[in-house]
Amino acid sequence: AQPIYLADYTPPAFWVDRVELTFRLHPTATRVLSRVAFRPNPDAPGPFTLHGQDLTLIRATIDGNEVTPTLTDDGLTCPAPDAPFVWEAEVEINPEANKALEGLYMSNGMYCTQCEAEGFRKITYYPDRPDVMAPFIVRIESDLPVLLSNGNPAAAGEGWAEWDDPWPKPAYLFALVAGDLHAHRDSFTTASGKPVDLAIWVRDGDQDKCAFGMAALKASMAWDERVYGREYDLDVFNIVAVDDFNAGAMENKGLNVFNSAAVLASPETATDANFERIESIIAHEYFHNWTGNRITCRDWFQLCLKEGLTVYRDQQFTKDVRSEPVKRIDDVLMLRGAQFREDGGPLAHPVRPESFVEINNFYTATVYDKGAEVIGMLHRLVGDATYARALDLYFDRHDGQACTIEDWLKVFEDVSGRDLTQFKLWYSIAGTPHVKVTDTWADGSYTLTFQQSVPDTPGQTDKPPMVIPIAVGLLDTDGTEVVPTRVLELTEARQNFAFDGLATRPVPSILRGFSAPVILEQTVPAEHKRLLLAHDTDPFNRWEAGRALARQALLAMLTDRAAPDPAYLEALQALLADDSLDPAFRALVLRLPSQQDLTQALFDAGQVPDPLAIHDALTAMETAMATHLQADLTASFDAHQVPGPYRPVAADAGKRALANGALALLTRTDAGARAKVQYSDAANMTQQMAALSALQRIGAASDALEHFHSQWQHERLVLDKWFGLQSSLSLPAEAVATVRRLTEHPDFTWENPNRFRAVFGGFSSNLAGFHDPSGDGYALMADWLIRLDRLNPMTTARMTTAFGTWKQYDADRQALMRDALERIALVPVLSRDTKEMVTRILA
Ligand code: DPP
Ligand code: ZN
């Protein structure tokens, strides 16, 4: 397959004015009738071509006259008038055979679609590109009781229903659902007084898991009105939960389709973390109605235009409804864990990629999360008022259009008067910038010197300096803030910033709030880290200082066989007992860097990470924490039990997070005594899972696991947790055997992406298990990726990232991983998706 280049973009040769579709649903032989009004584009004349894939063409007409199109590799072409005309076609498709879960497919007897990015071409012949936007009218014929599509309900009768979506949309936002579904209903009145009927559609038995999602939807609708001035624009908003889904959720106009794991929740079956994730995904998909649907992407290279902005908006929403500092820390953990890792390896690519073979491979942490960081920096640089004016202008100027990053930046330039040429590099330069900082003190003047550089990435070397907003504050050595936060704009390769009029040499707090997605290199004495941990007014940097102390202590254990640093333990002790601090924040401070973080830290320090040694160091540190902080952890555990009925609110969740963080540590030295009690007493999934995880981490969970399986064997989402917990937390020596055993379990329904990801996503996060020196973990993963690729290329390709850091390891492991990757690459009928990924990883 040939790559496609951003530079080759040409507008469509034909526009579409109107689409009418009729679906005669049948599990193995669905007929799709299309009637599409085309109009030649005078600005880009060219042949009439339509995309199509896995379709059986029954007949086609142009203006009522039968035509015989020429079928091509990716669709068809046909002579067409040089004037507006109506194309009609009838095709047959087989939803039941569609296990790739793109296009129209079946999941537990229900029909469902997924069209982003290029799934619509598996439904009918059409210009399946986002810059072709049109209103859709859809008729569904089926005996199933619930028949849904985009837009407003138009008419319905026995065995049919019609839907009318007046807002022009690209084909990737098309959706159809048909099934025996039950509605959880509510309503919302928009700011201008328009009523909207809301429904979450689920399978029988899931009705009790919708209330939280519905509340989140209403909160999102109100928030988007209040903060961005954006009202909803249809009479109905439907959400459907589907069990078989490749991603989290999809923002189809008026008919969002959700992975059931991303919407269904009850206190008994979902954890605090699940509730929070559901809230943010509901918000994300709802916010797409304006940032994605009303204003969409011109081409798939512009994916970050909608995704970066919508992630940024859902992050803002969560900060508003929960805790701002805690959300910022969570997001940075995510960014460093996934995006920095991607940016530092063979899969690095710019926020706006310039070429791809398969677009599905670019729904990445870089496009989404670094894309959101770039918008955060822009917001920080121009300030709140200008940001708000720029967004208003964006919505005014581009409503109904398919846009580019150039359009997006132009509204900021027009509103702020700034030249954003250098800032735009954030969209085209891959790799995480390194910012080295040094300081000097002379005559009451304190100077910070920054040096920036961006490492080489595949296809990119010798990178120019970027615009990097660096939020800085200064403390004195008693911990009093002497200079409040100020945003320095680093634009040169090397730049000084002076602070005058200080009485004594200050302690700097740099990159407050993680004001830019960069790797900060600074030599900070341990006593300054402790000072910042105790006193910084910026909660992010407070946490960051604790994190740095933990990392330093762990690296000393790994490289110098040092004992766990008592000064670190003391600093933690003070923090644990500080009841003025949000328990959720304390829970985050208590959490050690992950195996992934330490792997990266060792690699950055020029060493070869040993997964087993990293696992052992973390265990030793946790044991030391449990021993030295036993009284404090016990007090925290006791003081943060939440009595009464479970509520998924941030305040309660924070207390549970702190108590359960303490529990995990205490379990290291009490042989699981507390965790076993909590497991038996647990009245909600948060408490039950926390206890089970703590037991699994010390290898003492077998009884509880058996109990858990029998309790929850009929709740598929809970069963995913049972699989995931074992693959991700099994002790290193047992992990490969455990995963193999899980794949032989009768409940391992591997064609279901959630179940597959629970086992193999969990396994790939269990670094000491996955990187077993025998290479058995790699071989097992490769076997299953090869197997899944025949059915589901999208999920397979994403899971190949388990091998994405192979070059960081020792020669033996590298050779074993390369073998596994080459074995995948050599499969004769490998999908384009997986082929592109393994080729990039191996390059
Ligand atoms: N467009 C979707 C989302 O990010 C991807 N499935 O919301
Ligand atoms: Zn999105």
From TrEMBL:
Cofactor (UniProt): Zn(2+)
UniProt domain Peptidase M1 alanyl aminopeptidase C-terminal: residue ranges: 529-843
Sequence ranges assigned to domain Peptidase M1 membrane alanine aminopeptidase in this UniProt record: 214-423
Keywords: Aminopeptidase, Hydrolase, Metal-binding, Metalloprotease, Protease, Zinc
Domain Peptidase M1 alanyl aminopeptidase Ig-like fold span(s) in chain numbering: 431-522
Molecular function GO labels: alanyl aminopeptidase activity
Enzyme class label: hydrolase
Catalytic activities: Release of an N-terminal amino acid, Xaa-|-Yaa- from a peptide, amide or arylamide. Xaa is preferably Ala, but may be most amino acids including Pro (slow action). When a terminal hydrophobic residue is followed by a prolyl residue, the two may be released as an intact Xaa-Pro dipeptide
EC number: 3.4.11.2
Domain Aminopeptidase N-like N-terminal: residue ranges: 91-173
Family statement drawn from the similarity comment of this UniProt entry: Belongs to the peptidase M1 family.
Name assigned to this protein: Aminopeptidase N
Taxonomic path: Bacteria, Pseudomonadati, Pseudomonadota, Alphaproteobacteria, Rhodobacterales
Gene name, Swiss-Prot/TrEMBL: pepN
